[in-house]
Amino acid sequence: MATSTYLANPVVTVNAVALTGFCTAASMVRTLESIDQTSFGETSRTYTAGLANNTTTMTLFMTYGAAEVYATLKSLVGTRTTVTMKPGSGANSPTSPLHTMQNCYLEELPVLDSTVGELSTIELTFTGGTYSETVA
Amino acid sequence: MKYTIVSELVGTPGDEFIPAEGINIEALVEGGFIKAEKHNNKTKSED
Q1: Integer Cα distance of A43 and A18 in angstroms
Q2: What is the predicted pLDDT for the residue at A4?
Q3: A21: nearest CA in chain B?
Q4: Residue A84, helix vs strand vs coil
Q5: Residue B3: which domain range?
Q6: Predicted ipTM?
Q7: Does residue B2 sit within a domain?
Q8: Is residue B41 in a domain?
Q9: Which CATH number fits domain A11-134: 2.160.20, 2.40.30, 2.60.98, 2.60.40?
Q10: What is the pLDDT of residue B1?
Q11: Is A103's CB within 8 Å of B10's CB?
């Protein structure tokens, strides 16, 4: 049973730039690769945590205005940066944690993705990085 | 090097920008979000 209503309205920054007003979808997934540690005599496979292999994705309206989306991203492709996401705009707290992915890598940037009659959107994927959570 | 905020997407324009670890400063400068201020090493003499 749901105990609280959560209307998705996260705060998103990329390289310290607030892109919330351009963002329509955001996801930050922690992944710890599984390592098989099954030994002889066991009847079920068991696993232990390996390296972290995190993924951060987002969908943005593409804009080419001064100090907007393209200006934020054009120098980041092929480099590592920091992405943060929060469930809402309130202060950091256990019920509104700030999720930070530091040193995540932006492999590709769609520099133009247009369809007639639609707002231009792009999808970004940041791979890797070190995850941390701030609650105060 | 001291950096000053230009775009409100980064903070309050005019305030000093203190980068957190992992922030790509060059990308922010190139994108026009902040600007670098040269230090003025001259000190005022007290008369």
Answers
A1: 51
A2: 72
A3: B9
A4: strand
A5: 1-7+15-33
A6: 0.84
A7: yes
A8: no
A9: 2.40.30
A10: 85
A11: no
If you average pLDDT over residues A68-75, what whole number do you get?
Answer: 96
DSSP category for residue B16: B
| This prediction's pTM | 0.88
Closest residue by Cα to residue A58 from A127, A131, A130, A135: A127
User: Cα dist. A5→A1, A8, A13, A64, A90 in Å?
Assistant: 11, 10, 24, 35, 16
Q: Do A82 and B28 touch (CB under 8 A)?
A: no
Structural domains of chain B, count: 1
Q: Give residue A72's identity as a one-letter amino acid code.
A: T
Write out chain B's pLDDT in tens, 47 residues. 899 999 999 999 999 999 998 999 999 999 999 999 876 655 555 55
Is B43 a domain residue?
no
B7 to chain A, minimum CA–CA distance in Å?
Answer: 7
pLDDT at A9: 82
DSSP A30-63: --EEEEE---TT-SS--EEEEEE--EEEEEEE--
- The one-letter amino acid code at A41 reads G
User: Which residues, in sequence order, are CB contacts of B10 under 8 Å at separation 6+?
Assistant: A16, A17, A18, B17, B28, B33, B34
Domain boundaries, chain A: 11-134
Residues in chain A closer than 8 A to B25 (CB atoms): none
What are the tens digits of pLDDT across the range A28-65?
999 999 999 999 999 999 999 999 999 999 999 999 99
